[in-house]
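User: Thanks for the earlier help. One more: GCN5-related N-acetyltransferase. Can you show the sequence and predicted structure together?

Assistant: Of course, both are below.
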Amino acid sequence: MTELTTDRLRLRRWTDADREPFAALNADPAVMQHFPAPQTREQSDALIDRTTESFDRLGFGLWALEVLETGRFIGFTGLSVPRFEAHFTPAVEVGWRLAKEAWGNGYATEAAHAALAYGFGPAGLAEIVSFTATTNVASQRVMSRIGMTHDEAGDFDHPRIQPGHRLQRHVLYRITRAQWASTRKD
């Protein structure tokens, strides 16, 4: 599995030591406010297990995210294949989930840039999407900062969220390899 490094962050393989802080992150109502419910320890561990399997099968997944200077685990950022059917699937999504203490530092943007570079580089993807509940304005800002474009015609009702639920409506963002390449500075 490839490890990625940015100026301030390491995107790396998950370890057993990540399970407890990740479960705490997933149980935090503030972190999970744009999801139907916080996750149990079992659900949190299952997510780590699925992403580890994704790296083995696809060569990419959700990397554990740590701050280089301190080695502190702060969440994940990476690439995943949505596990539901929608008009834009099959697709590869870039996503992130960070501990509340890590918010406001630009970590999600920095790590998502690295994930996109891996997706359009070694993984050879043609397009990457991202989506979130309409209420998650902070994640929508990250999507814009990393060069993604809101596909308003692609907005959708998430099929795994109960009809009428406040989080059912989702926005869809996209970026192609060509769009990403045109924004590169190096």
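User: Great, one quick takeaway?

Assistant: The first helix runs from residue 19 to 27.
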